[in-house]
Amino acid sequence: MSSSVAIAVSGISKRFGDHQAVNNVSIEVPAGSIYGFIGPNGSGKTTTIRMIMNILVPDSGYIHVLGKASAADVRDDVGYLPEERGLYKKMTVRRVLRYYGQLKGKSAHEIDTAMKDWLGRLQLTDWMDKRVDQLSKGMAQKVQFIASVVSQPKLLILDEPFSGLDPVNAEALKDAVLEMRRRGTTIVFSTHDMSAAERMCERIFMIFRGKKVLDGTLEEIQSEYGHDTARVRTSGGAGILAGMASVDGVNDHGNYQDVKLNGDAQAFLQQLVQKTTVQQFEIRRPSLHDIFVRIARPTEDELRNETGGVR
Amino acid sequence: MSRILTIAQSEFTTLVKTKAFLFGIILMPVLMVGFFFFMSFAQRHVDVETRPFAVIDHTGVLYDAVRTSAETRNADSIDNGTRTGPEFVPSAVTVAGRSADEVKVELSTRIRDKDLFAFVEIPAEVLTATGSDVPPIRYYSESTSYEPLPNWLRTTLNEEITKRRFDAAGIDQAMITRLNTRTPLSTFGLVERATDGSVKEAQEVDEIARMIVPFFFLFLMFMTVMTAAQQLLNAIIEEKMSKISEVLLGSVTPFQLLMGKLLGVVGVALLLTLVYFSGGVYALMSSGRWDLFNPALVGWFVVFVVCAALLYGSLFLALGSACSDLKDAQSMMQPAMILIMLPYLGSFIVIQNPESSLAVGMSFFPTMTPFTMMLRIAMPPGPPMWQVLVSVLGLVACTALFVWAASRIFRVGILMQGKAPTLPELVKWIGK
After folding, report:
1. CA–CA dist A104, B252 (Å, integer)
2. Which of B254, B324, B425 is nearest to A55 (CA)?
3. Which of B316, B380, B384, B415 counts the most CB atoms within 10 A of its CB?
4. Overall number of domains in chain B
5. Any CB–CB contact under 8 A between B180 and chain A?
6. What does the alpha-carbon distance between residue A80 and residue A75 come to, in Å, rounded to a whole number?
7. Band of the pLDDT at A300, cuts 50, 70, 90?
8. Does B243 touch chain A (CB under 8 A)?
9. CB of B412 within 8 Å of any CB in chain A?
């Protein structure tokens, strides 16, 4: 494995009882990049991350992290923010961060310098000597992030770092992630926030039902899914689109609709003009959100089974 | 290793700084001393009532003795002007031609009316009858569970009756008492010949050394194990409930985490033990019983208490890691508590006869060794050295096994959420 690859995962699988959580997944995370893991809940993201972190052992396949055969060998160089995360409530912020830094083998001096820098960046300096149980949820989440970067890792793995944050704190945390990237850290993060993934990630990996379904740059993924989406704003609204032959699917945003087309966009526009007044018509690449929904949307069979179950 | 120490240190300082720990250290002795003070205070103050009682004396001669004795007793139970015991006030009742039953009915009514507390009927034959023909003195009261008055009456009347029997037989009772003086028997260890040829007198075995010292060590051992077990269970469950474990597992292996916690908490338990141990040593010094201090015993105690704390600590840590909340933990605790209670119950067998084959057997059973072998060593002459060494080897091996098995369970359990596993599942985790 070359040093330009931070994580190389080859054909890993993991089964819990009857449930195949991860099925023959391979990933290569280039060093210095931001790599986004997306996928619906329960699709195997966290299991994959735990295997990369050597917290779970794969049933088959290989994982190389920072050139070593196991994350256990480079533990001190990997920062990790799990999805299930907590802090010692009775400790002060300073003590918690020192403790986590020491567990990465850093000296008190190194930790203190990094800690003060990060607390300043995330507007938490005044809270350094407060106890964790005095922090708000957003603050605690920022402290958890600092705990994962206070050791200045070469690789940073964040499982749902933005979940539950208000927009201001989410922005602050995104800036912090980008700052780590500027410092040369490779970053892998999983998220449900498609716009964050679109804006921040150089490469995106999507796992669905334990299998890899997408892997590449946003550019590659979008061109694979084609220029088949039009954003339309008409006086007729979503109702006018129903039953039109060239329409494959509609994502209704209220004021406008994203339409997935199965044919020529120009022909569709002509049909539309005949039916209603068109205020806006834009041919777009499908957004990550659209692609995500297309892949993860339940099949018709599943929908039928679901309603049958309710009945 | 340095990570283990980092975790241990954090665990140790966090625990030692908690109010609960400081409270525990100070409060427990204070509570114990307070309890004894309260008991003795209560014993002296609980019953300072006046207890009027009537005496139907068919002998016609015993009432006066009762009255004089009551007066002396009442005077004695006044301390600095304060009454420290009940006041017994007798009154004589004469039958005077009525039937005894009628009198007793009347007295019973007076008791119900709270005019009297009790009455006693002394049959005429008590002075003359012997052997199994002696009729009982009959004591009547509403408060039949009240003991001081009937106890006092039994003693007082019997003394008087015996005295009168002796007088009637023309024998000097004082002489009989003198002739009956019992000769004491003292227990000694063995006599040795010292290196200079002189004979070294055997030490007299005293009850304090025989019982107090072993019990003190037993108490310390239990306290250490219980403190460590309780703290570890709480610590690990709190960590699981607040989702800290996975953050830590990003930095250390499960084994490092387990060992760090174990060492930290066991350290706290040992510190607590040291505090109480120093208290015990201080008590020995201030009571002038320095001779009871035995360095070898202390050395063995350190070996056993460290092993016991690690052995039981790892057990509770493994159980704790398998539970998701305190409710699960409580049901998991029960079998583990039995494991601790067994040597506790066993220690009574050991105290009675430390050389019995059952006691020897128990001291070789690793989970019981720290308690039972410690007791045997503390009780002269002590077990043969080979037994001690074999049991320590077994204990150390078992402790290592427990810590290893616990780390296997911990590895799986720490990330588990939801339903607690069954015992067979836990065993399966060890082999995984």
Report:
1. 8
2. B254
3. B316
4. 2
5. no
6. 9
7. low
8. yes
9. no
